[in-house]
Design a protein that fits this description.
Blueprint: E1 2-7, H1 19-28, E2 32-37, E3 42-46, H2 51-66, E4 72-76, H3 77-85, E5 95-102, H4 106-116, E6 124-128, E7 131-137, H5 145-149, E8 159-163, H6 164-174
Antiparallel strand pairs: 1-3, 1-4, 2-3, 5-7, 5-8, 6-7
Helix pairs in contact: 3-6
């Protein structure tokens, strides 16, 4: 089965790694057909194992190899396609659209945080098929109230985010 691993906190805040090294860790852990997309930690691969088992195996391998506490989220090709296909927002060159890959029910935690946050004009959050999507004006991502809560240590093991365009690149690599 084809999967994508979404790594959290890669190549930000001092956790730096080359994607070629990450791919080697995946290969050493028994994964096949491995490729990376962008430097933000998106690894496509094949395995006969279940996603929950892969998460444990790969987090352990990544943590040991890179000497950090690895958090990653494994999604099947079908699940990865749903992130792209369910995007509720229109493409607009002045706006970023992010989607959040994470543990079960994280979309409800994110929506609650979003609802309590001050918002800029055109900033929106929506849940579609248990996936949280966030639209924010370009240049406001890290400065927005909601953007600031995304770095909370209490949430670090629950999700990671990607620009919606990253999913298009991932799916091209998977197909």
């Amino acid at each position: 089965m084809k999967y994508c691993a979404f790594l959290r906190g890669v190549n930000v805040k001092g956790t730096n790694m080359k994607m070629a090294d990450v791919c080697q860790v995946f290969k050493d852990a028994g994964m096949k057909d491995i490729g990376s997309i962008l430097a933000s930690g998106n690894i496509v691969f094949s395995s006969d194992k279940k996603a929950d088992d892969l998460k444990k195996i790969l987090e352990k391998a990544m943590s040991e190899h890179f000497s950090y506490e690895a958090f990653l989220f494994i999604k099947s090709q079908e699940e990865t396609e749903s992130f792209w296909n369910n995007n509720p927002f229109e493409k607009n060159e002045n706006l970023h659209i992010y989607t959040f890959v994470g543990s079960s029910e994280v979309e409800n935690i994110l929506m609650k945080e979003f609802e309590n946050a001050a918002k800029t004009e055109d900033e929106k959050g929506e849940i579609v098929n248990n996936i949280f999507y966030w639209q924010v004006p370009k240049g406001n991502t890290l400065d927005s109230t909601f953007g600031k809560i995304l770095g909370k240590k209490s949430l670090k093991d629950q999700f990671t985010s990607r620009n919606i365009n990253t999913f298009e690149k991932i799916l091209k690599k998977m197909n």
